[in-house]
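B., you asked whether I could sanity-check this one before it goes into the benchmark set. Here's the sequence:
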Amino acid sequence: MNNHPLIRQIYLYVCALIGLILVVVGAVRLVDMGLKAAIFTGADTYPVYPAAIPVPAGQNAPTTAGPSPAEVQAYQDAQAATERERTASTSIAFVLVGLPLYLYHWMVIKKEKNHA
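And here's what the prediction gave me:
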């Protein structure tokens, strides 16, 4: 690869930049998730418009019934927790892939600059 030092240098900087971008995106998503969980708890609330549930007809009984407010709240809480877990797993994956990619290529760049 010594025949094309400019191409090698461009490759190393591009890979380091990609790794750094992955780390930044993952860190931003983790901070976002933490802020939603700790401070902006309403950001994880998704309105649910429950559909009517058919029930057997009886004396003076309605033909449909909706879920109780407690059931709606439990569903919303479960949905928010699931979304936080998805965000966390994706963000951690970004950081775990991006950090070694960045560090390796930046270390090679620094080593080549010291030897030049």
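One thing to flag: The mean pLDDT is 82. Otherwise nothing jumped out at me.
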